[in-house]
Write a structure and sequence with these properties.
Number of helices: 9
InterPro entries: HOTDOG_ACOT, HotDog_dom_sf
Keywords: Hydrolase, Repeat, Transit peptide
Strand content: 15-25%
CATH superfamily of the largest domain: Hotdog Thioesterase
Family: Belongs to the acyl coenzyme A hydrolase family.
Distance between the termini: 42 Å
Largest sheet: 12 strands, antiparallel
Helix content: 25-40%
Order of helices and strands: HHHEEHHEEEEEEHHEEHEEEEEEH
Protein name: HotDog ACOT-type domain-containing protein
Length: about 475
């Protein structure tokens, strides 16, 4: 059997004549004789054949991918096998980069997703319940942030997604309609990173003003610029503000960056649980003992599930169809989508009910995911609210409260290359859902207690965020998986 590099070289000459995107060149139809009178035969011969079928899978919207892949994978693969540098035309720079400060409006980008006008396009965004697949929206927003950041940085750099800030839904979307994606750089202090704020809203007709209720969600991505040769962080233009509103966005980004640094210093990896959290752990431990004490009448309720039983895991080979614009690494939006949909499945399996998405906590992409590697994802229900044991130590199963539970799911992501045995952590992802059931998760081991406390902190921080943002609705919305 020919080696992969040999096969690539054989295929390359035929592929060089193709464009960077899948073509739909029409193959010539056979000529019909004048004596043919069968209308059905004529109809069959008039059908157009294409070299590639229209995409019906879950990919990024075409309006965000026109320049995403400047070379076919087979060419990038050949360069990689030959030990050459694989880089796109965007990273080539023959002179000094322009670091002149830029305005927010310089990076603004807007795209309309015509779901209402194009039923076939909506096929790639709709789930079996007739709702929008939020994971696919996440993919598009990551692609949008890539377009926005390159407008700000200019050529000569490689940008990667470093993190995603908290995502919360602003208003429900109960119908399928055209959506408007928009985004711009809202924080860049002259270092190597930039914050891109993205919005999804109901698209209005030309000339029709938008309304506050049109806004669906707002989120921010953190992008980092790297030197294409050294792969080290490189500075980008700083941002200048022209209006008080822009200055407010800039200061919010600066405050967010400081808060993230402070949060890292107070994480459970750095400091032990405080007195209140330690007391809660002790109460839960005592309750477990009581559940299994034959001399006591209390037994573990059927709606209380051990944390170890809530885990769902997947492993998948990363294929080149989901690579990013730098050719050899997986697109961050695809990674985000996979973690979200696994978290949804874990919440559904835990509650035996359909979850409704509430929010996603900030997450950081710690390591890239190479094409051809194996991505391992493990989702765990880490916390439920109300808790299995209330703050006063009582049992958390009040019959007077409505059966609605907030479920916090943590997804751990690791990547392992085929040729090596070691796995690298690529990030942790945290999602909160509501389920129409009274169900609780119960930790047992020390590691599970730490996950429980960490998720509890995140849940409380999210509640404070919603209280500070009146436009964020408190209930669920019609967006699920």
């Amino acid at each position: 059997m020919a080696s992969p590099s040999t096969a690539a070289k054989r295929l390359l000459p035929a592929l060089r004549t193709r464009t960077s995107r899948p073509s739909t060149q029409t193959i010539a139809r056979p000529q019909l004789s004048q004596s043919s009178s069968s209308s059905s035969s004529l109809s069959r011969c008039r059908r157009c054949f294409t070299t590639s079928s229209p995409q019906r899978t879950d990919g990024v919207f075409r309006g965000l991918t026109d320049t995403r892949l400047p070379m076919p994978w087979i060419e990038a693969f050949r360069l990689q096998q030959e030990g050459q540098k694989v880089e796109s035309s965007e990273t080539k720079n023959n002179g000094e980069r322009d670091l002149t400060p830029k305005k927010m409006t310089d990076s603004y980008h807007r795209v309309v997703l015509p779901l209402g006008r194009d039923p076939w396009l909506s096929d790639t965004y709709i789930n079996s319940s007739g709702h929008i697949r939020l994971g696919t929206i996440f993919m598009d927003l990551d692609a949008l942030s890539g377009i926005v950041v390159y407008k700000h940085t200019g050529p000569g750099v490689t940008t990667v997604t470093a993190g995603v800030d908290r995502i919360e839904l602003a208003h429900p979307l109960t119908e399928i309609c055209d959506l408007e994606y928009s985004g711009m750089v809202t924080y860049a202090a002259g270092g190597s990173s930039a914050e891109i704020t993205c919005k999804v809203a109901r698209a209005r007709d030309e000339g029709e003003p938008s309304r506050p209720e049109d806004l669906l969600l707002t989120c921010t991505f953190t992008m980092v610029a790297l030197d294409p040769m050294t792969r080290k962080p490189t500075p980008i233009p700083r941002l200048v503000c022209e209006t008080p509103e822009q200055e407010e966005l800039f200061q919010a980004g600066a405050a967010k960056a400081l808060a993230q640094r402070a949060e890292r210093k107070t994480s459970l990896l750095e400091v032990e649980p405080d007195d209140e959290e330690s007391a809660l752990i002790h109460r839960i431990w005592l309750r477990q003992l009581e559940y299994h004490d034959p001399n006591r009448p209390l037994r573990q309720p059927p709606n209380v599930v051990a944390m170890a039983r809530t885990q769902l895991s997947t492993a998948a080979i990363m294929q080149p169809q989901y690579r990013n614009r730098h050719q050899t690494m997986i697109f961050g939006g695809y990674h985000l989508k996979q973690t979200f949909e696994l978290a949804f499945c874990a919440a559904a399996s835990f509650a035996h009910a359909r979850p409704t998405f509430v929010s996603a906590d900030p997450c950081t992409f710690r390591s890239p995911v190479p094409v051809g590697s194996v991505l391992y994802l493990t989702a765990t229900v880490a916390y439920t609210d109300p808790a299995v044991v209330e703050e006063d130590g009582s049992e958390g199963d009040s019959k007077d409260s409505p059966p609605l539970t907030r479920v916090h799911v943590r997804v751990d992501s690791k990547v392992r290359e085929m040729e090596h045995g070691t796995a690298r952590v690529t990030g942790q992802f945290h999602y909160t859902f509501t389920v129409p059931k009274d169900v609780r998760v119960l930790p047992h081991t020390y590691e599970e207690y730490m996950r429980y406390i960490d998720a509890r902190r995140r849940m409380r921080a999210g509640a404070k965020s919603r209280a500070a943002s009146p436009q964020i609705i408190q209930g669920g919305v019609n967006l699920t998986e």
